[in-house]
Structure formats: structure tokens, C-alpha cells
Amino acid sequence: MNVRIGAAPISWGVCEIPGWGPQLPYTRVLDEMQAAGYAGTELGPWGFLPTDPAALADALARRGLAMAAAFVPLPLKDPAAYPESERRVRQTAGLLQRLGARDILLADAGDDLRMRIAGRPDQTRAHGLRPQEWPRYAARLERLSQLCRFEYGLVPSFHPHGGTYVEHPDEIRTLLERCDPHLVKLCLDTGHVALGGGDPVALARTHAARLGYVHLKDVDLPRLRALLARGASYVDAARQDVFVELGRGSLDLRALVGALREAAYAGWLVVEQDRVVQPETDTLGSARRNLVALRALVDAPSGMR
Predict the structure, then answer these.
(1) pLDDT in tens, 144-167
(2) What values do phi and psi take at 13, rounded to 5?
(3) How far is CA 182 from CA 146, 156, 260, 264, in A?
(4) Torsion angle, CA of 173/177/178/183, rounded to 10 degrees?
(5) What CATH number is attached to the domain comprising 33?
(6) Which residues does 145 contact at the CB level (< 8 Å), separation at least 6?
(7) Smallest Cα–Cα separation from 69: which of 105, 34, 99?
(8) Distance between CA 186 and CA 124 in Å, rounded?
């Protein structure tokens, strides 16, 4: 089965959320991805990597890395913000196209309220999109997905995410039901699905034909629940190491990889460990351990071959 294993800059603490934490130099991040043995990287927040296509292509080629995709958070809930959503998509899609990438990951940007109540299903259901908002929300996403696919030749996948308006399993289901499955694929992020109260393995099986991209995370669920019980937001929880190295958390990643094999999934498996790091953090050691753990699952008889 044709899968490639990549890494995302968030595992090095690089995040689009303002004030997230220290940001390491992009050269260190790419050097460590190469040293650990990954096949590719994601773009990270706009401006973290060079945005000049030639400069970025050279930086990747010198390290033998491919550009896997980019995560693009969008203010989809606000109709008046559609021009800004389109601007972000065109900016990112144009760069991905020049780099020969196949995938682009579209997501809701969320807001302060949803960030504060992330991981609490009763509250997220009470403060979600109203029934009358869903049709136009989905239409905006489809319009942006058409742009990605037909103007830039990219495969758009929607990324459910903690702290946004598509987090809870009911929200994920509604979004997928309202969007054309041939146009909008699913980016399965194991950690964010679990944070929202969902089952990543069940989601992979239910939407096997729709899987376009996969983010592999592991989560310390007891620690997450304890933090949420004390009022932690999504950002608070991520900063306190609820996302752990693969195999050290609560998720059944072996079953998840088995579900991907059953689905005949072919594409990127990208390791993500949402966290804050310091310059002295052993990010290379962590990257290597994550890759070893994932390769063991992929190469096992019950996983992908």
C-alpha cells in the first residue's frame, strides 16, 4: 500500500495560534525532519517556511523532503469574511501548486468561545452552528474546495479541529453529509477527533471512502479530562502536554492503522504532536521515536505493508 510518512512543524512547537510559545528556526526543524528520516513536511503557519517558491523548493530539495500539504484555518462561520478565506486559500494553494504538493487541508478557524469550551461535548453542542447556518457554511467550504481542485489541481480535505465549529462527532457528521464527497475529502486527525469526544477508528471505518489525509497523534486522555475538569481551554491543554509521543497515550493506533489498511488508504501519514517546546527540548529524539513507533505499526502484519 502506497503511504508516505511525514512530519508537521507543530511537533517542533510551531503553531499559527498567537502566543503559542517559542518558535524554532525553520532550518533546525527541516534539518531534524531529515535526520529523523521523514519523507516530507507540511507548510506550517504562513511565513514560517520561505514563501518564495524557488527558495522553499531549494530548502526542501537539499534535505530530500517533499511538501506534503498545508493546514489553512478559515473564518467559515462569518459570511462577511469569505473574501479573507478565499485570499488565504489562494495564497497557500498557489505555493503548494508550485511545489508539486497534492493536498490542502481546510479547517474552521474557531473563536475564543469554542477554544474555551473545547473537549466538553455538552457545551460544544449548545454553542454550535444553528441549523439554518449549516447550508451556507457548507456552501462556502464547497466553493473554496472547488477553487482548490479546479484552479490549482489540489485535493482538498476538511480537518475537524478542537476549539472550532467542527469538533464534536455530530458536527463532523453534519459537515460531511452536507458537502459533496467527491469534492470535500476528510482529513482524519486522531487527536482532535478524540478531543472532541469521537472515536478515530470508528470515523476511519465509517468514512473509509472519503479519507484524503491523515494526521497521527496520541493523547493522554486521563490527563486531558483532568485539565478540562479544572477549566482548561484547548490551548491550555495542549501547552500542558496532553498530546504525547505515539504509543505513549490512550489511543488505539494499531486499530487505527488497521482501519486505514482496510480502507485501502493511500497517501500521507503525518505525525503531529501539538505542543510547546523550548530551544533545549530534544525535538530530534522525539521525532525519531515517533517515526519508529509509526513504522512499527505500518510494517506489522496487522497494519499496512
Answers:
(1) 999 999 999 999 999 999 999 999
(2) 80, 15
(3) 10, 10, 19, 17
(4) 110
(5) 3.20.20.150
(6) 106, 156, 158, 179, 183, 184
(7) 105
(8) 21
Q: How many CB atoms lie within 10 A of CB 138?
A: 21
As for how many domains the chain has, the answer is 1
**Encoded amino acid at 144, one letter:** L
Closest CA to 189 of 254, 255, 273, 112: 273
Residue 43 within any structural domain of the chain: yes
∠ CA 15-157-46, nearest 5°, is 30
Domain assignment present for residue 305? The answer is: no
- 183-201 burial, b at 16+ Cβ within 10 Å, e below that, comes to bbbbbbbbbbbbbbbbbbb
What is the value of pTM for the model shown? 0.96
Tens-place pLDDT, residues 218-274: 999 999 999 999 999 999 999 999 999 999 999 999 999 999 999 999 999 999 999
Whether 283 is covered by a domain: the verdict is: yes
How far is residue 42's CA from residue 67's CA, in Å, rounded to a whole number? 6
| Domain, as residue range, for 84 | 3-299
| Residue 219 near residue 197, CB atoms below 8 Å | no
Instruction: Indicate whether 304 belongs to any domain.
Output: no
Integer Cα distance of 291 and 37 in angstroms: 8
